[in-house]
């Protein structure tokens, strides 16, 4: 599961042409912190959380955020039918 999250982040960084250094700058952390997160040496989901997810047959998933316009359309469509 952690590997899926790391790969999704790396992919998003590549699509947006954001380097580890640039991401670190935006987050106001040092570059080695980003390197550790992306390599898996830090930033793992705590063991207990993983056990909870496993017990409930759930998984942590990374997906792009909806754009504001998408959210507005969805909200408008819901309110129209009520």
Automatic annotation (TrEMBL):
PROSITE patterns the record matches: HTH_CROC1
InterPro entries membership: Cro/C1-type_HTH, Lambda_DNA-bd_dom_sf
Signal peptide: none
UniProt-recorded name of the protein: Helix-turn-helix domain-containing protein
HTH cro/C1-type domain segment(s): 9-63
